[in-house]
Amino acid sequence: MSIVSAFCQEQKLVFSLNKLESKKESEIHCAREIVKNLPFDGQVLTLDALHCQKETLKIIRDKGHDYLVSVKKNQPKLYQELENIAGRSKPLSTNQTREQSHGRDITRTLSVFPVNKFIKSNWPDPLVFVQVERKGTRSHDEPYYNLAYYLCSRPENAQVFTEKIQGHWCIENQLHWPKDVVLQEDLSPIHQNQAATNFSVLRTIGMNLFRFLGFDSITEGQRWLAHRHERLLVLV
Known about the structure:
Blueprint: E1 2-7, E2 14-20, H1 27-36, E3 44-47, H2 54-62, E4 66-71, H3 76-88, E5 93-101, E6 104-114, H4 117-122, E7 128-137, E8 143-152, H5 158-168, H6 170-182, H7 193-212, H8 218-225
Parallel strand pairs: 3-4
Antiparallel strand pairs: 1-2, 4-8, 5-6, 6-7, 7-8
């Protein structure tokens, strides 16, 4: 049993979630249902390569949202076409950043390119794509190189795309990690599916409430509340 969530990069809130039973359905169909029921219009949805599916992107566009989706070799024709365009075209804009932390020294160069007629005719409303080149060294000065592509239905400059792509991963350290470690979901002894789902939803609600109160750190929120239960009245 898993919980699939729609997470807001800016506010660090879960807007919607859905239960996934891995033996009965896939995350792809679960994510499509979330998109259909999002409580807001006109959002930019960032998605992993698993969700680079024509039907999923069509649902996003039909619901009035835009997409920024990672493209990998699970879509070989699209991936090859993006490689070809990037190799022979001048980017519309570029942005370069450098990260030096935890033994890593990585330079990221992000370039924005227009899509061609082939991509426009085969995918739902794409306007540009993004190439992200990462190179440098990781722990123990080990050489590192990675090239990634993203397809997008919304034209933006390289600086905006840099923020959106980096912000996509905040779901890991702002949602998954606090739930698994801080709120100890990984250590939960509950194994019955419905009960485990209920407690997972309650943890998500608790995290949202702490964020509404201005706590980026769930640990700081827990310390503020501690055993002073009268402070729960702040939420009324």
